[in-house]
Design brief:
Elements lengths: L2 H4 L12 E2 L5 E3 L13 E6 L6 E3 L2 E9 L2 E15 L2 E7 L7 E4 L7 E4 L2 E6 L3 E7 L7 E7 L8 H8 L6 E4 L2 E11 L4 E4 L3 E10 L2 E6 L3 E3 L7 E4 L2 E6 L2 E2 L4 E2 L2 E6 L2 E3 L8 E4 L2 E12 L4 E4 L9 E13 L5 E4 L9 E15 L10 E5 L4 E12 L5 E2 L1 E5 L12 E12 L4 E2 L1 E4 L6 E8 L1 E3 L2 E3 L18 E3 L6 E3 L1
Parallel strand pairs: 6-12, 13-15, 14-16, 15-17, 16-18, 16-19, 17-20, 19-22, 20-23, 21-24, 22-25, 23-26, 24-26, 25-27, 26-28, 27-29, 28-30, 29-31, 30-32, 31-34, 32-35, 33-36, 34-37, 35-38, 35-39, 37-41, 38-42
Antiparallel strand pairs: 1-2, 2-6, 3-4, 3-7, 5-6, 7-10, 8-11, 9-10, 11-12, 39-40
């Protein structure tokens, strides 16, 4: 037993809901109802300014483990908190002291110190982390440390004042356990406020609504195969802060999802889908999913049309199966739909574990149903050592299981500052379909694999070799200009 564990009895003297430490440092630690299932795998402590350590509740959340093509539900741990300034963290693993710890994404390069069974580190900004003891990624700690930017409101009246709406337009979930009959229909102009420490069993439907905000660091989970927050045929929607199962956006315009986390464990548990929607923005998000993390599709599930103006900035993607990023595939073959003006920037990909070759690719454009994919940029994407899959899978294809026609083509794709460190990625694929359904103008800038830059004039490359050979990439038929700078 260490000194931190011995001091836990003093924590009862602290405020469980929130603590204000100074004008520039703030720390909010949630308190959950006893009906919310706790994890005993980890103890998590936090403090600021060398004050007393506070205990952070650690909850159970299911994740998907694919082994030999079979799906198994595992129980990971989840802890949330919000702060400004900086915080010291201490994570204690139950049982024997771990031989090794890992905090990911690795690109954050967070310095850590281990003393006995406890890992110490400091955070100075919002981070969505996986803390792993002895390499166990299925019984890990998902730590969601938030920037304390959301106003702390203890009543609906305070929410109305903070967000400048009438009180009747506020749906308030305070700290505690809230069980919906099934779903909450969010209406135009409403603010749904999810207090830190709120656990909402059920799901929320933003359907044909305008000017909606769902804000706060609470949890929304149907506890079954169901999207926790669904945006459907809606306009001017903001989702800021919650942890839930999925957040699909379909048939909608002008949607912003920020500081949101999704974790799924069931079949077809895509994280943040876009279907036939325009001007959708994701900022500082996390997806750990039992299917694709992020998708962009055209006509699908009743939503109709193409997609334009989709942007993702600062995301962590962990696909326990399927793709971290998947674009194309679904559309209306009679409409010749288009996906264009898409940006993925500042992304960490922690995992792909997909045994089906048709559905591999950390960055995948699988183009079917007469869709044209034109004008996409992927920049500053860091891929860690995945379990099973490949880095790039760009195909104009006819997947008869999901499509009714091949795509019209993929063109004008820029991939800038993409890096991979690892040894398990298989061969990447780039192929067109025929002379009229081609891949054209794909530009890699500063592609690095295990620290080695892959470019057309790289030293030692025989002139008769394709540069793609050095990236373990098959560039097949009906592919036009592909450059590596």
């Amino acid at each position: 037993m260490n000194l931190i564990t011995q001091s836990l009895s003093a924590l009862a003297l602290l405020f469980a809901w929130s603590i204000q430490l100074s004008a520039t440092t703030t720390l909010h630690v949630p308190s959950y109802d006893q009906r919310v299932k706790r994890s005993t795998d980890f103890t998590v402590l936090v403090r600021q300014n060398n004050e007393q350590w506070q205990r952070v509740p650690v909850l159970v959340w299911n994740v998907d483990h694919v082994d030999g093509g079979r799906h198994h539900v595992e129980q990971a741990s989840v802890a949330t908190l919000s702060f400004s300034g900086s915080v010291e963290m201490a994570v204690i693993k139950k049982g024997n002291a771990p031989k090794s710890w890992r905090v990911r994404p690795q690109s954050y390069a967070i310095p850590t110190t281990q003393r006995g069974d406890t890992l110490f580190f400091t955070l100075d900004r919002s981070r969505y982390l996986s803390v792993e003891a002895d390499g166990d990624i299925y019984h890990n700690l998902q730590l969601f440390a938030e920037d304390a930017h959301i106003p702390v409101c203890r009543t609906a009246a305070e929410v109305a004042k903070a967000y400048k709406v009438k009180k009747r337009n506020v749906v308030f979930f305070g700290p505690g356990y809230h069980e919906l009959k099934d779903s909450l229909a969010v209406k135009s102009g409403q603010v749904v406020y999810l207090s830190s420490g709120a656990y909402v069993k059920g799901w929320m439907s933003i359907y044909r609504a305008k000017g909606v905000r769902v804000v706060g660091n609470g949890l929304v989970t149907p506890e079954r195969q169901q999207a926790g927050i669904a945006v459907r045929y809606a306009q001017n929607v903001v989702v800021d802060g919650p942890l839930t199962t999925q957040i699909p956006v379909g048939g909608s315009d002008s949607v912003t999802v920020s500081n949101a986390k999704v974790m799924s464990w069931y079949a077809w548990g895509d994280g943040m889908n876009v279907f036939a929607s325009n001007h959708v923005t994701y900022q500082h998000v996390f997806c750990r999913t039992s299917d694709d993390c992020s998708t962009i599709y055209c006509t699908r599930k009743g939503y109709q049309g193409g997609c334009t103006g989709i942007s993702v900035h600062d995301a962590v993607y962990w696909a326990d199966v399927a793709h971290p990023i998947m674009i194309g595939l679904h559309g209306d073959i009679e409409k010749n739909e288009t996906i264009t003006d898409v940006v993925y920037d500042d992304i960490d990909i922690l995992q792909q574990n997909e045994p089906q070759i048709d559905y591999q690719g950390c960055i995948a454009i699988n183009n079917g149903d007469n869709i044209l994919v034109d004008g996409l940029t992927f920049s500053d994407i860091r891929i860690e050592d995945i379990a099973l899959g490949n880095l790039f899978n760009f195909r104009v294809c006819f997947n008869k299981k999901y499509c009714h026609a091949p795509g019209r083509g993929i063109r004008n794709i820029t991939l800038r500052n993409i890096s991979y460190r690892g040894s398990h990625a298989g061969m990447s694929i780039m192929t067109g379909y025929d002379e009229n359904r081609r891949i054209e103008n794909v530009h890699f800038e500063n592609l690095q694999i295990n620290g080695r830059k892959i470019f057309d004039k790289m030293p030692g490359k025989p002139k008769w070799y394709k540069t793609a050979d050095f990236a373990n990439m098959f560039v097949g038929e009906h592919v036009g200009t592909v450059t590596f700078d």
